[in-house]
Specification:
Length: 247
């Protein structure tokens, strides 16, 4: 099994580019420490630039060659003050673990813990995605997708990562929808929950049905407009040939 972080793009002129890192490389470790997700890698690179600025870090990378998957060391020098949106190494990284495994059956007492571990990693991926979105490293229009974008992304995930990646992506979508539905926004279940909490704080005195209805209606209109904007952006990305997998 090879686990790590998938490189989806290397920015020209960046430290990663200068040492010949390539798209589809899999970063396994940095300075001898295994990385399981992009947060691990970014934290290690940031720590390295703070403790030893302008010094190289050692990346162990798995690369798929004509002779099979080989491990190659690289020693880029992270930038202390990189251009906005490029990162210290100048790579775009997949937000979930890329894993190559052999097909193997496990006994139930082994399969259940392994499945739960894999499932928990999805929550880490969601947390990483929100962190990237709110940090401004990726524009909101590139980080958000509607049904059109999700359909295209499903095709990309299937072609790049096969059945395992597709099942992981399906679970990610399911969990993300559940989290979104619980956000305290009008027209969502989370918005209704806000009114229930308000009722509890007011000792059973409800907000009038008319007022609550107006709030939910306004929220529905906003969500509908957001859906139109996101769908328009998805169509633009498809027409321009831009992929949906974000690094």
């Amino acid at each position: 099994m090879i686990s790590g972080v998938l490189v989806t793009e290397v920015i020209n002129g960046s430290p990663a580019y200068n040492v010949s890192l390539q798209e589809d490389d899999i970063i396994i470790s940095i300075d001898g420490i295994l990385v399981n997700n992009s947060s691990d890698l970014n934290a290690a690179v940031t720590n390295a630039t703070e403790t030893s600025p302008n010094e190289s870090v050692r990346l162990m990378v798995a690369r798929n060659t004509s002779e099979g998957i080989v491990a190659i060391p690289f020693t880029p020098v992270p930038r202390v003050d990189p251009p906005k949106g490029e990162g210290k190494l100048g790579m775009l990284l997949q937000n979930y673990i890329y894993t190559v495994t052999e097909n193997k059956a496990y006994a139930p007492w082994d399969a259940i813990p392994k499945g739960l571990s894999k499932y928990s990693s999805i929550f880490v991926d969601i947390k990483d995605s929100f962190a990237v979105l709110f940090s401004g490293e990726v524009a909101a229009k590139d980080a958000l997708s509607g049904p059109i974008g999700i359909a295209s992304l499903t095709n990309e995930v299937s072609s790049h990562f096969g059945a395992e990646g597709l099942f992981t992506f399906a679970a990610l979508i399911s969990i993300s929808l559940g989290i979104m539905n619980l956000l305290p926004l009008p027209a969502l279940d989370g918005g209704r929950l806000v009114f229930v909490i308000i009722e509890g704080l007011r000792r059973g005195k409800r907000v009038s049905a008319k007022t609550e209805g107006r709030v939910h209606f306004a929220g529905f209109i906003v969500l509908l407009l957001l859906f139109v904007v996101i769908s328009y952006n998805d169509i633009q990305r498809i027409v321009s040939g831009q992929g949906f997998i974000i690094k």
